[in-house]
Amino acid sequence: MTQGTAGAQQWDVIVIGGGIIGCAVARELARRGAKTIVFEARAVGAGATQASAGVLAPYIEAPSEGPLHSLTVQSLSLYDEFVSSATRESNVAVEYRRCGTLEVAHDAKAAEHLKALGEWVRSKGVEARWIDPSDVGRMEPALAATHGGLAVPSHGYVHAAQLTNALASAARGHGAEICAGRHVDGMTADGACATVKAGGDVYRARTVVIAAGSWSSEIAPETSVAPVRGQLVRVRWDGAPIQRILWSEPCYIVPWLDGTLLVGATVEQVGFDERVTAGGVRALLTAASAVLPAIANATFLEARVGLRPFAAPGLPVIRRSAAHRAVVYATGHFRNGILLAPLTATLVADMIA
Prior knowledge:
Layout: E1 9-16, H1 20-31, E2 36-40, E3 55-56, H2 58-61, H3 67-77, H4 79-90, E4 96-97, E5 101-104, H5 108-123, E6 129-131, H6 133-139, E7 149-152, E8 156-158, H7 160-173, E9 177-180, E10 184-190, E11 193-198, E12 201-210, H8 216-219, E13 226-236, E14 245-247, E15 252-255, E16 260-264, H9 278-291, E17 299-310, E18 317-320, E19 327-331, H10 337-352
Parallel strand pairs: 1-2, 1-12, 2-9, 5-14, 12-19
Antiparallel strand pairs: 3-8, 4-8, 5-7, 6-7, 10-11, 11-12, 13-16, 13-17, 14-15, 15-16, 18-19
C-alpha cells in the first residue's frame, strides 16, 4: 500500500475475517482489553461457518495420535465454558448438546476397525462403547441394519451460526467493532505495526490477525491456504427420534432440536466455486439413505455450501508471520474450525498479549 498512514484510524488489533474463528478471536481479545476491530467482506458467519454442522467429535475427526488430535481434544475440553460464557455475555441462545456420537459399521472389516478405535479411545480415559448390531437397533430404531457401532458419549454438536452470532455480540459488548460487508483491499506491515485499507479508509494496528479462511492466502500468501468445497443438506425428519449424531464412512447426520437433520458433507477440490450442485446433494442423500432408509420420505428444506480452508499438512495455521511480527495467522482449520474455535481464540490472544 502506498497511501500514507498519517490519517489512519488506530487500533490495538485488526481481525480480518468474521467467521467463527475471527469472532472468537475478537471476543477474546476485546474481553482482555484490546481495542479490536473486525472486517468481514460478507455477513458475519456467511462463509464456511454457515455450512458447518458444528460437530464436536475429536475421536472421529482426528482418530490417531498427533498434533491435530491433541488440539481437538484440548479445544473440546474448553467448550462448556466457551458456550456458557458467550451466551451469558451476549444474551444469545445457542443450541449446544453433548449428545454423543454413534459411528456405525456396514461390514465386518469396518466393525473390526471401530472395535480397535474404541480400545484406543478408552486408553485415553474417554468412554467409548462397542454396540452389538442388535443393540444398535434398540438405541436408534430408525437405523438400517449394521454390523454394530461405536458410541462416544462425550461428543456433541453446536449450532455454528448461533454460536458465531453470540461471539460477535459478546465481542461488541466488550467494545469491539465488527464491520460486516467491509472488504479488505490491502494490507502491509512495517516494523512493529501493520496497515489495512478497507472500504476506502485506512486503519493501523500493532497486530493484524488473518482469520479469512479460504481467502487468507489472497491477503497473506505465506499462509498457503486452499479452498475445499463442502456441501450440506437439511431435511425435516418425521421418523423415530434420532438421539445422537450418526456417523458412517460417507456421511454424518446431526439431529437438531427443531426436528430437522443436517446431512454432511462433501469434500470437493473445485477452487473458489461456491455453487450447490445437484450431484453433491444427490451424493449426500444417497449416503444418508444407507444409514436412515426413511430419510427418503423426509422433507427437503435446504442445501448449503462453504469453502473450508485447508493448509498442508492438515493442521491449522496459528502463529506469527515469519516475515512480519505484526501479523498473526488464525486460519487453515479445514473441517475443524468450529471445534477448534475456543482453543484458537485463547492461543491467539495469549500470543498477542
